[in-house]
């Protein structure tokens, strides 16, 4: 069984990580993350990785079929991930201005963070460049469940928990449990 496991690891895991590394057009700065699953880094801005950051988890959905995607789209765009952050499979963060994930966060499967609508909402401006963007800040020790979407301008306070399937379009304070679509505080910690 040891040989078969090694062959599977080489063909299905390491080869996929290498493929997405080659496809990436932006190299993150800071520390080297632990890439359990593939990650594609893209854009013209900066992606900064803290110490002890992990992308992917093998015993979790979407491990063999998906990859994570981080894009700092514009020269002024910045995605910053703090220390001791664990991010599960199929994560995406796309920034026109700034996304910050602070220390000790845990992020579930299929989470999406965006800091812009990427198009103007008004019909007559829809094809104009430079749509409005507002930074997203995820505080320290935040736990984000699976299938969560975090939209532009949202700040999540320290120690908060975001329930699975939530859509966040407004900010929340420290030490709360947030859930729903639209998300609301369901309990204080």
Automatic annotation (TrEMBL):
InterPro entries: Hexapep (IPR001451), Hexapeptide_acetyltransf (IPR051159), Trimer_LpxA-like_sf (IPR011004). Gene3D superfamilies: Hexapeptide repeat proteins. CDD domains: LbH_MAT_like (cd04647). PANTHER family: SIALIC ACID SYNTHASE-RELATED. This is Acyltransferase.
